[in-house]
Amino acid sequence: MDRKQCCVKLSVEPSRGLVDEKFTVLVQNVSPGSQLTVHALHRCEDQYTWETFAHYVSNASGTVNVSEDLSLGGTYSGVEPMGLLWSLGPVPGSKPGLRMRKVNVQTPMEIRISVYQGHQTEGFTAQVPLAGVLVERWYMAPGVQRVPITEGGLTATIFLPSGPGPFPGLLDLWGGGGKLVEYRSALLASHGFASLALDYLTPKITLETGKMVDNTYFETAYRVLQQHPQVLGSRIGMLGLSFGTSITLKMAAYSEVVKLRCAICVSGSHVQPVDGSVAEILSYFHTNAEKTRFNEENQVIWRDLLLPIPTDPALKVDMGRIQCPVMLVVGEDDHNWPAKESAQDMKEMMERAGNSHLLTILSYPNAGHLIEPPYTPHFRATVFKTVNQRQKVMALWGGDTVPHSRAQEDSWMKTLAFLRENLYGSTNTAAASVSHL
To answer: Which residues form the catalytic set?
Structure first.
């Protein structure tokens, strides 16, 4: 290494930002034509370690700009400004099936970005980097409030945006894994929406009584959000992923209490017994358990459980009853739910009913089931514990890393635009201005 290499400068701007905010990684003051490896390392709250790396060659001015320059190899190739986040994977030797999810949203995700001499592929912790920077990515912007909710028997958390309000509201429902998952709601609040994250499969009331919640539980959550002094009670939407989509569509179509301004359904289906409770919907899914498949890696594929899409109107939500704008986000390589076939059937139902003008479908080739906020690493298969039987399986979610990552970025941008248009009104830009740290 020549003397100039000792003074390598590495900068990341902004070094502190929201998880969906792009950053620029710049390496300066190296010799022209130098082979360099840019490496990212993250230690999760569960103490598992994740890393990614990419190979670059400095230009004539001795600079590498990750946002503009080609990665020649590593965990991603080509010009990928945020590849250092979305290509993160467990370090070699980790146990299989890990999934990275933020639990404590009041602390940042910390990533150590370093630059090494040469094109390295392993042994990073045993080497001394030329330079390193600690980067913080947050789900909660400054001023966002996190307020646990227990009234009405709920297990929930509401995230309130910075400022006096009142703000439009969102009910945020995750899928079949249960638990109170907060990070998406925290990020939505950082963009100006009062978001209530709701545990409906493993809430305290279910753990105490052994009984799953009924539809009134969701109506209670809606009322709590609607009546909050910092929420615009007439401007509430609902966002569901996977099984959360089933609840979102049921409430939108049939509830006399839940009156939504819009709904977003990610990787889900309208197929369910129309009059069913949560327990009955889950039970219906399992009536087709013999359709469960396993691939050659013994990863479970559940998408066939709801196929073929039934023709019996008692077994799917009547989409003709929907009276608010609906966005469907579909990964076409979803191995967990038949999201693509369901979206097509919902579209046909709404066309026949004359309300298809309310429907927007975002469909992504080679994207899988777990379509999350942008720059979240892609997980093709992870360990999954079923709520009803509590057994661990290796679930195949699907998707290929690059197109899935593109889908996450594109769908999140369009999700925020959809929410702003339908909850704020397209001329109101207040929600767009609160996201930066």
So the answer is: 242, 334, 369
